Amino acid sequence: MVVLMPLPALADCTDAAAPGVEWRRCYQDGRDFAAADLTGAQLRDASFTRANLVRANFAGADAYGAKFNSAEIAGASFAGARVAEADFSEADLTGAIFSKADLRGAKLVAADLRGADFSGANLRGADFFRARLGGALWTDGKTRCAETSIGQCN
Predict the structure, then answer these.
(1) Residue 152 carries which DSSP code?
(2) Cα gap 146→46, rounded to integer Å
(3) Can you tell me whether residue 27 is helix, strand or coil?
(4) The pTM is what?
(5) Where are the alpha helices (DSSP H) in 67-142?
(6) How far apart are CA 90 and CA 87, in angstroms?
(7) pLDDT for position 7
């Protein structure tokens, strides 16, 4: 008797934005996902370059290695998300929530992170070169970065 194992589900890049959506390695560049609920979504190596993700919910999503370059992501939540090795270069992340997120090795070069929440986040190896961090809540959940903080939390 031969037992066939089911194959893993393949990403369908045309699926609607929804919790748990499978968009691994999908290109969603320039698309509008403002206020979309992408909790628990599988976004590994996906691309959202120049996309509108304002107030989107990525809580618990796996976006390892995803590209968010020059995207509008203000007010979005990445709480508990895995965004290690993701690229947020030049993205607008004002007021974004990264509490308890895995940002190891993430690239946040020249990103606008004013007022962002990094409480409990893992930032090991994250690159904040020229990133604006004024008013951001740091990993200890107590420290607020000075308004003049560029590239590091002062």
Answers:
(1) S
(2) 33
(3) strand
(4) 0.92
(5) none
(6) 9
(7) 45
